[in-house]
Amino acid sequence: MGKKRTSSIKKLETIIGYKFKEQSILENALTHESYVHEVRGYSLNHYEQLEFLGDAVLGLAVCHILFKKYRKKSEGWLAKAKALIVSKDIIIKKALKINLGLYLRLGRGELKSGGKNRPSILTDSFEALIGAMFLDGGYEICKNFIAIQFKEELINVKKEEFLDFKTLLQELSQSHFNTLPIYEVMEEIGPEHEKIFHIIVKINNIVMEEGFGKTKKEAGQIAARKAVEKLKNNFKKS
Question: Which residues are catalytic?
Answer without folding.
Answer: 55, 127
